[in-house]
Every structure is written in structure tokens, then in C-alpha cells.
Amino acid sequence: MLIHPQFDPVALSLGPLSVRWYGLMYLVAFVLFMLLGRAHARRRPETGWTPQQIDDLLMYGMLGVVIGGRLGEVLFFQPAYYLAHPAEILAVWKGGMSFHGGFLGVLAAMWLYGRRTGKGFWAVTDFIAPLVPTGLAAGRIGNFINGELWGRPVDGDLPWAMIYPWVDNLPRHPSQLYQAAGEGLLLFVLLWLYAAKPRPARAVSATFLLGYAILRFAAEFFRTPDPGIFGVLSLGLSTAQWLCVPMFAAGAWLLAAGRGTGAGAR
């Protein structure tokens, strides 16, 4: 049985400036996006993406992640807390980012980018889909360092069960690490391999939606449910699990609609 190390959330202090681990994880995510984007463009030159375009994509994506992720956390998961502490809404460096909100923010940003450049929404999302999971992994590691989003109590013996002393003395699943491994590293490997060859338009985007929805839905069984605006809903499923349902449906529909269209350079 393990005990959470209770890391200092501040990684580095330079006078009045404090650099937090959670912020560093976002920096890692953005750097990986840039590096992997360049590698993806080199192995798929027919897509026509240039380093400058990838840098522009990153800027759009950063805004979508931060704005959408924070609004999703505020509106979907902790509205009562932020209503009582409105100044905390801007304190993104302390943690508290919703994937589903960030996902919607990124979709809006990619639509705007595609519209302004003429590349088209699906060409953009098919290109970035394999670049996203490593950022998700970095974010989950940030959650673990912050000691937030801990897992459900373990039923039985589990060698890697972890006690979070500020919560209680119950051994729990380190669900942050499960998610980093699943929707982060595993999903990255699957998408990176799948996107190595030309696929029908929308197929890579659809595969991301399906893969994330399945892996997140499964991970929620090991994670203490977020309170959400609805709490635990019907069938004993969490808010996040129900939010995965339309993601899965959209991915399945896109994948089915793309069959028979032939492979493209997406």
C-alpha cells in the first residue's frame, strides 16, 4: 500500500514568482503538441501542414483549452463553489479544468482556424487528433501531483492502492495515473499508428472520439465522481460518463458516415 507523496504544488519560486507543477504540465503538453505536430507533418507531407501553421494551431488550441476547460469546470462540475468564490475562476494555475469543456473550446477554436485559413474543420481535427492524448496524459499527471481527483476506495488488496491522507485513511485507486496511461498514452499510441496512413475524411477524428469516450467511461468506475451539476445520475453513472455517451455516438456516426468515401489525405 502506498501513501501519496503530497508534493509541494509549487515547483519553483523566483522571488514573488511561483511556478506551479500544474502549469508546467500544461507547458509540457503544448511543447509535445508542437514537436509531434511537426513529426506528423513530415511523415504525412501530402497533408500540406507547415511548421508555421502548426504554431498557429497551437495558439488557437491553447486558448480553446484554457477558456473552455475552465468554463466547463465552473459550469458543469463546481458551479456552487465558483459562485461563492468568483475570484477563483481565473486561478487556473491551481488546477480545476474540465476535459469536456476544454474539448468544446478546442472544437470552437479549430472551427475558427479552419474557417480563417480555408483548410476546413475536418482536415484540422483529423490532423490534431493524434497530437492531443499526450497533453491529456500530462494534465492527469498534474492532477496527481496536485493530489486532486483521487480514486474510489479499493475493494480488497491492491499493491498500488494509495492513501490520500487529507481525504481519509482508506486505500484508493490512483485514478489520475490510470487516466494518464489510458486516455493519455494508450490512446496516443493507437491514434499515432492509425493516422500514419491516409484515412477517409473524419475517420481519425471519429477514432479519437470513440477511443476517449470508451477509456474515460471505464476510468470513471475507479475515480471518485465529481459532484457536477447533477452529481451521480441514473444507472449510477457519473456526470463525466454521461458526457461520454454523446461523444461515443458522434464518433460512431462519423466513422460509419465516412465508410466508402475512400482514403484521403486527412
UniProtKB/TrEMBL annotation:
Subcellular localization, as worded in the UniProt entry: Cell membrane
Membrane topology classification: Multi-pass membrane protein
Class of enzymatic activity (EC top level): transferase
EC numbers, comma separated: 2.5.1.145
Keywords (A to Z) from UniProt: Cell membrane, Lipoprotein, Membrane, Transferase, Transmembrane, Transmembrane helix
Binding site for a 1,2-diacyl-sn-glycero-3-phospho-(1'-sn-glycerol): R140
GO MF assignments: phosphatidylglycerol-prolipoprotein diacylglyceryl transferase activity
Coiled-coil ranges (or none): none
Gene Ontology cellular-component annotations: plasma membrane
Pathway it works in: Protein modification; lipoprotein biosynthesis (diacylglyceryl transfer)
Matches recorded under InterPro entries: Lgt
Annotated Pfam families: LGT
Function in brief: Catalyzes the transfer of the diacylglyceryl group from phosphatidylglycerol to the sulfhydryl group of the N-terminal cysteine of a prolipoprotein, the first step in the formation of mature lipoproteins.
UniProt xrefs under PANTHER family: PHOSPHATIDYLGLYCEROL--PROLIPOPROTEIN DIACYLGLYCERYL TRANSFERASE, PROLIPOPROTEIN DIACYLGLYCERYL TRANSFERASE
Family according to the record: Belongs to the Lgt family.
Protein name (record): Phosphatidylglycerol--prolipoprotein diacylglyceryl transferase
Species the sequence originates in: Aromatoleum tolulyticum
Gene name, Swiss-Prot/TrEMBL: lgt
